[in-house]
Design goal:
Radius of gyration: 45 Å
Strand order of the largest sheet: 13-15-14-17-16-11-12-19
Distance between the termini: 91 Å
Helix content: 40-55%
Length: about 700
């Protein structure tokens, strides 16, 4: 039979609701299209880091639905039931571990051993395991030489010969980190060391057994021949070319332009080393004493001393003698080419020595001893440890999944935590306090420019902030969902408090402007009109001030100011006409207002409100209805299945304004404000004047 699911309509979408363990068991049958999220990043979210690392098996930085399902399948095999899994408790009862499977029995035995070893658990005589217990067991176990990880560092607990064996393996082959974090070796590295040394010893014996005319000097001459071969071959080739084409002899030699100091007046060793070995003269042998390139003089001197008995002239090397030396060394050089290399094995600490650097006495000691067999016995004993590192890590995985996996599952199948006022979702990383408000919808940001491009489609007013704390820095974006944006701007400072309680200095570096609330939309037209009037008055006052300054300067510089009666009459006439028109307009408005019935005044006010604020309110309402969480999370690396609407009600929960406590008292006396009776007197006079004008108007028109 098909499983019956329960859904809850929240945020404009149907989100699955888990009732019991049977829902978790049947989760693989739930259509992925009904999951709220398909993927989430492992960075920038408020969740246990170790659990995310365990879930991210391919280490690509993202958790996907198959990762969640595989983890649930694994924990289902390790537990007797998933009832305790739904509680997301830090306490894992040992009785809940499934003893019917081999892995379960191992985990149960390891858990019991930990409870018998950890002091706090022994003291409380507990039958359940916590994450702290496992962490403490790992720490205690790491201090022991036999801790079940099958890795041994050169510890003082070992005898000196075994320490030397292990250190030699680390230097030559490489090492791995044991449970305590120290560098050691495992069975594979120890075996590789012995095999490499055996191959090296066999090769060395073959080298020593080879017969050449040079006897004990064969190895030294062979090394020099390998180093000098290219330079000597180049010399004899140039000599042959000079004999073949005498006109090219000067070209084959060193051009003086190449033997000049560099910009710092120093000769370059590498540049000189690339020049010919000696002066090129057609048909001449190589003079081993004079005229040698200084960069190669030391090697040539050593080579001359070694091959001196085999030369016709001790100071010269002919081409035939050079070819003969090479020919006699062919068997030796071929054997040198078969020099065994250290076989690569899996290590985390790279080797820092070569096998050529090992003293022959040390090699003989290791090969003569039984160190590999002794090390194998140590590994076997370590694996019989009641608490092995592998089992402890597996138990830690079970404890972490038991505590955290259900929370992550809820943030994949639904955003129940996001719509619950008493909790927060894993993508909410803290709170931003700014402009008398607290924004709780704060998400991590890596690239502000890239993030804002996609997050713009969320229709949320977003503040991108650079947060600094001591030497640390991070970028966040916070959604403002209530209030107004009049005083929100780039450069404003606030305080960001992360989920760990750390406070960061936050500075707004970018703002995505969107409607925030209906109240902001109501007053927006009046604010625009006020700003327009203020700007026009400022411009007019500025222009008049400039005009007066210009006229004053003109009169002062003319020296004979005259009063133009004609121009003045025109100005006074214009002012009179303007005042008359203004009075007529005011009288017309007053006549129309006083002609209304009393019940028509509210309708007039409502009509003016609809005309002025109506379009702004309607446009804001439409945009506020389109606010969605999806693009904001998509920009942070999530893959969201639906839009997840943010309603006006949820918006009021995501951002809170400063409010006085319920029992607070407000003192209206301002200590820095001078109290005067003039405003009250002027208000009474204005009221009296209005009453007189109104009475006169009614008397004149309705007498």
């Amino acid at each position: 039979m098909k499983h019956t699911w329960t859904f809850q309509h929240v945020g404009g979408v149907d989100q699955v609701y888990f009732l019991d363990a049977d829902d978790i068991i049947n989760l693989p049958t739930l259509d992925p299209k009904l999951w709220v999220a398909l993927s989430c990043p492992t960075a920038g979210i408020n969740f246990n880091t170790e659990t995310l690392q365990l879930l991210d098996r391919d280490k690509d930085g993202h958790i996907r639905i198959p990762d969640i399902l595989d983890a649930i399948s694994w924990i289902r095999d390790q537990l007797c039931s998933l009832d305790s899994f739904l509680t997301a408790s830090d306490q894992l009862p040992i009785s809940e571990i499934n003893p019917e499977t081999e892995t379960g029995r191992k985990l149960q035995q390891t858990a019991q051993s930990i409870l018998n070893k950890v002091p706090s658990a022994v003291k409380q005589n507990r039958d359940y395991l916590t994450q702290a217990d496992v962490e403490q067991a790992i720490t205690l176990n790491a201090k022991s030489l036999y801790n079940g990880d099958a890795i041994f560092p050169p510890s003082d607990q070992l005898n000196p010969d075994m320490r030397t064996f292990i250190q030699t393996a680390i230097d030559l082959v490489g090492g791995v980190l044991d449970a305590s974090g120290e560098t050691g070796i495992n069975q594979q590295i120890a075996t590789a060391l012995v095999e490499d040394l055996q191959k090296w010893q066999k090769w060395q014996n073959e080298i020593k057994s080879i017969q050449t005319p040079f006897g004990a000097d064969t190895a030294a001459i062979g090394k020099l021949v390998e180093k000098l071969k290219s330079k000597i071959d180049d010399y004899f080739l140039r000599v042959a070319l000079a004999q073949y084409a005498p006109q090219a002899e000067s070209t084959l030699n060193v051009n003086e332009k190449y033997i000049v100091p560099s910009d710092n007046q120093l000769l370059s060793h590498d540049a000189l080393a690339d020049l010919p070995l000696s002066k090129i003269v057609a048909g001449q042998p190589l003079n081993l004493v004079e005229g040698i390139n200084p960069c190669w003089q030391a090697q040539i001197d050593q080579f001359r001393q070694l091959i001196n008995p085999y030369l016709t002239n001790a100071d010269q090397l002919t081409h035939q003698e050079w070819l003969s030396i090479e020919q006699q060394l062919i068997p030796y050089l071929k054997l040198v080419e078969t020099k065994p290399a250290v076989e690569p094995v899996a290590v985390t600490v790279v080797a820092k020595s070569s096998i050529d650097d090992l003293p022959q006495d040390l090699i003989n000691t290791i090969l003569a001893g039984d160190y590999l067999n002794e090390f194998s016995k140590m590994v076997a004993k370590d694996k019989r440890s009641p608490i092995t590192a592998t089992d402890v890590q597996m138990l830690k995985k079970l404890v972490l999944f038991h505590k955290y996996l259900y929370q992550l599952l809820l943030n994949f199948t639904s955003f129940a935590d996001f719509f619950d006022p008493s909790s927060s979702a894993i993508f909410q990383i803290g709170k931003l306090f700014i402009d008398g408000r607290c924004a709780t919808l704060c998400v991590a940001v890596d690239d502000i420019a890239k993030h804002s491009t996609l997050a713009n489609y969320s229709e949320l007013c977003l503040l991108y902030c650079e947060c600094t704390r001591q030497d640390q820095k991070q970028f966040i974006t916070a959604a403002m969902t209530i209030g107004s944006g009049d005083y929100l701007m780039t450069g404003r400072n606030g305080v960001f408090i992360d989920n760990n309680g750390n406070d960061w200095d936050a500075t707004v570096v970018k703002m995505v402007t969107k409607p925030i609330s209906i109240s902001q939309a109501i007053w927006a037209p009046y604010q625009r009109i006020g700003r327009l009037i203020t700007e026009q008055l400022t411009k007019w006052a500025s222009s008049r001030d400039a005009s007066i300054d210009a006229e004053s300067s003109k009169l002062l510089t003319s020296g004979d100011p005259k009063f133009d009666i004609g121009k003045s009459v025109g100005i006074f006439a214009a002012i009179g006409l303007a005042l008359g028109a203004l009075g007529t307009a005011v009288a017309s408005i007053c006549q129309a207002l006083f002609g209304l019935k009393w019940w028509q005044f509210p309708l007039l006010i409502v009509g003016l409100f609809l005309v002025i604020s109506g379009p702004s309110v309607i446009l804001a309402w439409i945009k506020l209805r389109r606010r969605t969480l999806g693009p904001l999370l998509e920009a942070s690396g999530w893959a969201i299945n639906s839009r997840i609407k943010i309603s006006l009600f949820s918006g009021r929960l995501l951002t809170s304004k400063a409010e006085l406590p319920q029992n607070a008292k407000r003192n209206l006396l301002e200590p820095f404000k001078k109290r005067s009776k003039k405003p009250l007197v002027f208000s009474l006079l204005a009221l009296l004047l209005g009453v007189v004008i109104t009475a006169g108007y009614y008397y004149y028109f309705y007498k």
